[in-house]
Structures are given as structure tokens and as C-alpha cells.
Amino acid sequence: MGQRPVTSTLASLRALPAPTRWLLMGIGLARVASFMIWPFIAVAMNKRFGTPITEIGAQLALGAVISIALSPLSGLLGDRFNSRNLMLFGCALCASCYLLMGLLPGQTSYFAAIIGMALSQSILEPLLRMLLSDTAVDDAQRTFLFHIRYYVVNCAAAIGPLIGLWFANHQSDGVFCVAVCVYALLTLTIINADRARLRNPHLTKTTSPALREILRAILGSKLFLSIIVANFFLVLVYAQIDEPLTFYLLQLSVDDINHIIAMMSFTNAAVVLVVHLLLMNWLITLADKTAYLMALGCLMVAHALIALNTGAWWAGWLFAVVFATFAEIIVMPLFGTLIDRLAPRGMRGSFIGISMLAGLGTALAPLLGAVVIAHFGGAVLFWGLALACIPIGLLGYRVLRASQPELAPAPSPV
User: Fold this and answer.
1) Which Pfam families does this chain map to (predicted)?
2) Strand, coil or helix: what is 402?
């Protein structure tokens, strides 16, 4: 019984077109390269160049805001112009940033690379999702692709830092050469997938929509706007498991805090890589409104466990991470699937790009968490977050239930 989901998932993966599988591999390797570098970038800048931590944080925050803010523009441009050329430009920009850090290491070059990478990711993230979706042969494959892409990205998040740790410990700039080669490979997979997209008989050839038409479609879809709002609040609540939880551990003066943080990261990765693989096909067939409510329920339990764990019992943190990861597994691919199914033909890039504005919740989470913890304490923050899951969950459930005729569930993959 336990082997059926794995077998079914592998069969669905083999059923994907070859260009789609190659594109998935390119995306996965690009994420591995990213996780080899960026988790250690703050330490490298501080120890090698003496950059203050506050300055590093400001630079990374600026990069995150740029990436999120420009994603809608990239989606709009991808629908109106040649999205392949935009993606190739994004890959070239990424490779240039890594070359800059490897050949001319310094505070200025690293800051320029952070901004350049933010710009490139704002281009690549929405357009790669659109390209991946366009290579599928039917709606069932599209739904599966959003789950398998999520799984591949999490595999990269588990593998990348382990490889990058060696380069970081040896202060080797060779990691940047690896990243350049990976983005060259991603470029080839994009070209191959774009050719397959042009040959896809399931895609209707349409002219590029006018900007006014795109904006009318976006603003006219109350469901789309409601999903973005719900996703923003959900991301804001979920992201408190990251930096704000670390702030709370510091406030509690937890012993061996680095060990606990490492254990929580490992628990998150292990749950995603094992549980999501086993439950993937069940989650694909689960009704949207039910999945959303289950995710908020798991998130509510996670925050309640953190609030209750005033005695700093290490297993309490791990149980909280397990429930939060359950919520992540259920809801993160769900939103990608919903946006993909809502987007009219010829406007998928625009809808995906606009939907990424919900990621601003992640950018606001550390500030919100720090302010509440400093003034009221961590227990107040996490009890408040647990209670906030109730209205957020009910809002999303009502939106999805009322829109059921508009969003017919996709059939499960063969």
C-alpha cells in the first residue's frame, strides 16, 4: 500500500514529454547552484570584506523587494514579447553576476551581483513556470508539474547547502564557476523546451494581448485577486517559522541554539522529501477548498505548539516544524495550480507574475515578528498567529467553495 504513490508518481514523471523532464532538471540544477552560494553569502561578505551585518541585511532585503516587485512586469513582457529571449537574458545576467563575484570579489561587486541576481530572478521565476506549464500536454500534467517542480526545488534546497559548505569552508571561488556552467545548461534546456512549446498542438496560437486587455482580465477576476490576498496572509503567517522563530529562541536564551536550528532545517527538508513524494498523487486529487483548510489547520497547530513551548523543549520545536511543513506541502503547489488554471490563454505569464506579489508577505515577516516579540514577547506573537489562521482559512475556504464552477478540479495523472 505504501509503495503505490511512489510508483504512480514515477510513472507520471516518465509520462512527461522529454523536453519537460530536461527543463525540470535544468531548473533543479540551477536551484542547487543557488543554494550552494546564497546561504553562505552573508558569512562570506562579513568575514572576507568586513561588511557589517546590518548592511548585508539591507542589501539582501533590497534584492528581495526588487525581485518580487519586478516579477509582474516580467510576466507582462513575457506575454507581449518573446519570452524565450527574456529568459535567455535572465540566464546570461545570472551567469554574469556569478562571474563578477568569482573574478572580482569585493563589497561593491557582491552588492552589484545581489541586485543583478534579483533582476534576473524576477525575469526567470514567472517565465520558467509559464514555459514549464506550456510544455504539458493536458491539465492533469500541469497539476502534476506544479507538484513535481515544488519537490525538485526542495531537493535542491537539501542538496545545495551540503555541497556549498565545502566551498564555503575552503573559501573557494570555484563555486561560482560551477554556477556559470549550470546556467549554461539551463539555457540549453530553455531553448529545447521552447521548441517543444511551439510544436504543442494543445496550445492555441494567439496574438499578444494588449496591456489594457491583460489588466481588464486581472482586475475583472475577483477569484484571482482573492487568491493573491489569501496567499499573502498565508505566506506572512507561514514565514514566521523562519527568522521570527529564531528571534524567539534567542529571547528564550535556548541552549545550543545553532544545533536546534540545524535540526529544524533538517526536519523540514526530510518531511518535504519523504512525505510529499508519498502523498503527491493524493494531494493532486484533493479538492482545492479541502486542501486549503487542511493547510491552515496544520499551520494553526504549528504556531500553537510554538506558543505552548515556553519551557524550550527541543522536541516541541521539531513537532511544530513538522506541522508547518505539512501545511507547506499541501498549499504551496496548490496556489501555483490555481493561478495556472485561472489564467486566460496568452496571459499566463502576466497572471503568474502578478501572483508573485503575495511573496511580499515573506519580506514583511521578519519585521513584524521582531516588533511583536520585542514589545509583547514570542508567546503573544505565535498565539496571535495561531488564531489568525482561523479567519484566513475560512476566507480561503469560502472563496474556493463559491468558485467551484470556475475552477473545475483537474483529473489525476495517469
Assistant:
1) MFS_1 (PF07690)
2) helix
| Angle between helical axes of 211-220 and 53-80 (0-180°, round to 10) | 110
- Among 147, 169, 200, residue at a domain's last position: 200
- Same domain membership, residue 24 and residue 131: yes
Q: Name the residue among 326, 356, 329, 341 with its Cα closest to residue 232.
A: 356
Query: Of 171, 200, 229, which one is at a domain's C-terminal end?
Result: 200
Rounded to 5°, angle at Cα 404 from 402 and 410: 155
Four-residue CA torsion sign, 98, 104, 110, 116 = negative
d(CA 320, CA 382): 11
Question: Which residue segment(s) compose the domain that 101 sits in?
Answer: 1-200
In a domain, 289, yes or no: yes
Q: Are 340 and 146 in contact (CB under 8 A)?
A: yes
Q: Is 155 helix (H, G, I), strand (E, B) or coil?
A: helix
pLDDT digits (tens, 9 = 90+) for 342-357: 777 777 777 877 877 8
Secondary structure letter of residue 313 according to DSSP: -
- CA distance to 4, 63, 107, 178, per residue, from 113 (Å): 45, 10, 10, 16
Q: How far apart are the first and last CA of the chain?
A: 18
Which amino acid, one-letter code, is at 34?
S
**CATH code of the domain containing 169:** 1.20.1250.20
Same domain, 215 and 195: no
pTM of structure = 0.71
